[in-house]
Design goal:
single chain; alpha+beta; 4-stranded antiparallel β-sheet
């Protein structure tokens, strides 16, 4: 029987400890974990840094692909991905953990002054401080500091040293920002004028407003798969209203606000909107 490659062997050890894992290629970018998604041909997100709108039987991008199932990790479908992989990544939130990613010495100095000590792992540029407990992920919470937990992945660089501490309120507070008016930056739709001219019928409240309200409700009522629900909702709205130019910044802001209320970051909202437009050729 062929022995698993060293990187996949590390993944199997982590999975046995109930840490969800996935392959990571050079540049800290997840690999397409099935043949149909090789090279991102399925239409997933740019660089596959987040779960994409894949039509595979199961999610196969980034944190959404992380698994503890040894049969999946060792399966022939994942073999090409592990061959391409340069490292193992894991989903901290799936393991009930939060990683405070400190990218430089200034960030490390700040953490030592303001955060509780916990298990620490040296990285190429700084340190990962790992706490027990999951929370919403958030990038750039302060200079050189990212939070990686739910809906995120981190590179596995070793078990680290020190005793793991319960996730403190000081870390949770880093991801809490004062809610402000959402102002999505949108590029022009650049769509053709309707044949025959005249006012777009989608502008009527009984059509456009009802559609936006239904989209908001779909996002708000989602209990799982929030990231994919947001993308598919944006796709549905744009498929109906994206080619006539009837959508306003206020309409899009309503959708972004609903998504952010479910834990999506502004960056994820912008990416999902851009990907939906690209999927439709807008």
């Amino acid at each position: 029987m062929t022995q698993p490659a060293p990187i996949r062997r590390v993944a199997l050890v982590l999975a046995a400890a109930r840490v969800p894992v996935l392959p990571l290629r050079e540049g800290k970018v997840p690999v397409g974990n099935c043949p149909a998604c090789t090279g991102n041909v399925c239409g997933g997100r740019p660089n596959m840094k987040a779960a994409g709108p894949c039509t595979c039987p199961a999610p196969c991008h980034a944190w959404a692909a992380a698994t503890t199932d040894p049969h999946v990790i060792a399966s022939p479908a994942w073999t090409p991905a592990w061959r391409e992989a340069a490292a193992v990544a894991y989903h901290p939130g799936g393991a009930g953990l939060t990683v405070v990613d400190l990218d430089n010495q200034d960030a490390i100095t700040w953490a030592r002054q303001h955060l509780l000590p916990t298990r620490t792992v040296r990285t190429t540029r700084g340190e990962h401080w790992i706490y027990r407990g999951a929370m919403r992920s958030s990038n750039a919470v302060r200079p050189g500091v990212d939070i990686k937990s739910t809906m995120a992945y981190a590179r596995w660089v070793g078990p680290g040293a020190g005793t793991m501490t319960e996730l403190p309120d000081a870390v949770r507070a880093l991801a809490v920002r004062e809610r402000s008016t959402v102002r999505p930056v949108l590029s022009a739709l650049s769509v053709p004028v309707q044949a025959g001219g005249g006012e777009c019928p989608h502008r009527t409240p009984t059509y456009l407003d009802r559609g936006i309200a239904m989209a908001e409700q779909r996002i708000t009522e989602a209990r799982t798969g929030i990231h994919l629900t947001v993308y598919r909702t944006f796709l549905a709205v744009l498929s109906v209203h994206g080619r006539c130019g009837c959508l306003t910044d206020a309409d899009v802001a309503r959708l972004f606000t609903a998504a952010q209320a479910k834990g999506e970051s502004p960056r994820h909202c912008t990416d999902a909107w851009a990907n939906a437009r690209a999927r439709l050729g807008l």
